[in-house]
Structures are given as C-alpha cells and as structure tokens.
C-alpha cells in the first residue's frame, strides 16, 4: 500500500486527498452529512409545528436569554474558525500548529457544552422540563441532539489528536483531521439555524 | 490530483503549490459575525413588525450558511459536485418536511 510510503515531511500537497481511500472516505462522509441534514430537518419541522403548544409551561419569550445565546453562538462560530485553521496547518504540513488549533477547537466546544448544560438547568428550574409541553419536548430534543453532536465531536477530535501524536501526520491520518473539521463546521451550520429558528424566532413570537 | 510529488522539503511544497492563506477564512468569519449581529439586533430592537423580522432572520441564516459551506467546508473548491448533490438531496427532504409541518399546523 502506497499510503505508508510517504515519510513525514514528504507529504503530498493536500495529504487528506492523496489516496483513493481517503477521497472515498470524504465522499462517504458528505453523503452521511446529507442524511444528518434530514435528521435535523425532521427535528426542526417537529419543533416548528409544536412550538406554540406550551401547555402550562413558560413561553419561549419568557424563557430565552439572548445574551447567553449570543455568547454560545460566538463560541461555536470561533471554534469553527479555529478548526479551519487546523486544516490550513494540515495543508502546510505543520503538525504542531495543527494540534494546537484542534485543542483550541475542543476547548471552545467544551465551553459551549458547559453553557448549554447551565442553560438547560436554568430552564428546568423555571418549570420547563422535558415533559412539560409539546414545545419543551421538541425544544430539548432538537437542541439536545445538537448538543450531543457537539459532545461527540469533542470526543472524536480528541481521539484524532491522540492518533496524530501516536502515528504522526501521514496520508492515513490527514483525512481524519479533514473529515472531523468538516463535521465540526456542519455542527456550526446547524447551530445557525437553531439560534435563528428556536431562539430568535421564539423571542419574536412572544 | 497533484502531479508533482518530487519535491523533497515540505516548505518547497507550500511554495510550488498555491496553498490558501487565512485571509478569506477571516473574511468569512467577519461576514458570519456581521450576519449574526444583524439577526440578534433585529430581534433586540423589537420595534420591527414580526413578519419583516422573520424575513430578516431567515435570510441572514441562509446567507451565513452559504458562506460557511462555501469557505469553511470547501464546497466552492473543485471536485465538490457529489457533496453538493448529497446536501441538496438532504435539503430537498427537509424543505418538504418543514412545509408539510407548517401546512399541517397552520391550515
């Protein structure tokens, strides 16, 4: 297999696409992202259909605090930028700076998760439990599913960093970095729709 | 793909091939930031009527997603026809479902 022929420092241009296997992995991942789009779309459509059915619980307008949502948005947006910097470092074959940017991405992801856990705790405190209303159930399912994706991404990128430490930057490990970065951007793209549809529209609807 | 694998130093590789700089990603970040702030400001202002605010919010989100997918997910680069088809297939199903859900509830 030619994949192991390249020693470090002799990586081809764009090492994440150097082998057919790598290109197939990237293509397969995009098809997976198409399916993820459908998954989140179903949750969004359920939320849109049920968001006014608040039962005895608080309304979206009473519940949501825009400064906190804005902070979470900034954290995730910045982490998307740092993961694209990691891919650029990969293109420059700069292993150290790539790992650095990946770690920054993970830390920002953890900050986002911490903020989300705090937020959910506050909501439950205010009488907005999972089973309070159709609105609360669809809210927690949609936003919680996104949070679970962030948590999965943090673990995934952590494992990829471990592999890079162990095996170095090769044409085998490079696509893993690239694909996890694409996944991370996708999470940020989904969040753009969450803060728009769930939080901002919730504030408008009153 | 890349034709010349014969370069020995990685530093040379970055010179011979055009490796993208961080500028356009920072431009993408600033644009995303601006679109996010517009969306939050439109809601915080509160004085604009609801329908118009919805239109602003949805357009800001759609523009931002296009920017992020094109720049950060490299979709504008060559050889991304199948990724685009994959995502468009997903978006088609999503549109169908969202319209169904709204139609089912509102009419």
UniProtKB/TrEMBL annotation, chain A:
SUPFAM superfamilies: Cytochrome c oxidase subunit III-like. Pfam families: COX3 (PF00510). CDD domains: Ubiquinol_oxidase_III. InterPro entries: Cyt_c/ubiquinol_Oxase_su3, Cyt_c_oxidase-like_su3, Cyt_c_oxidase_su3-like_sf, Cyt_c_oxidase_su3_a-hlx, Ubiquinol_oxase_su3_dom. One of its GO terms (molecular function) is cytochrome-c oxidase activity. Residues 27-203 form the Heme-copper oxidase subunit III family profile domain. PROSITE patterns: COX3. GO terms for cellular component: plasma membrane. It is found in: Cell membrane. The chain crosses the membrane at residues 27-48, 68-87, 99-118, 138-165, 177-201. Keywords: Cell membrane, Membrane, Transmembrane, Transmembrane helix. GO terms for biological process: aerobic electron transport chain. It is a multi-pass membrane protein. Belongs to the cytochrome c oxidase subunit 3 family. This is Cytochrome c oxidase subunit 3. It comes from Cohnella lupini.
UniProtKB/TrEMBL annotation, chain B:
The keyword Repeat does not apply. The chain crosses the membrane at residues 26-46, 52-72, 84-106. Its main location: membrane. Keywords: Cell membrane, Membrane, Transmembrane, Transmembrane helix. It holds the Pfam family COX4_pro. One of its GO terms (cellular component) is plasma membrane. Coiled coil: none annotated. GO terms for biological process: aerobic electron transport chain; electron transport coupled proton transport. InterPro entries: Cyt_c_oxidase_su4_prok, Cytochrome_c_oxidase_bac_sub4. It comes from the Bacteria. The keyword Membrane applies. Belongs to the cytochrome c oxidase bacterial subunit 4 family. This is Cytochrome c oxidase subunit 4. The lineage of its organism: Bacteria, Bacillati, Bacillota, Bacilli, Bacillales.
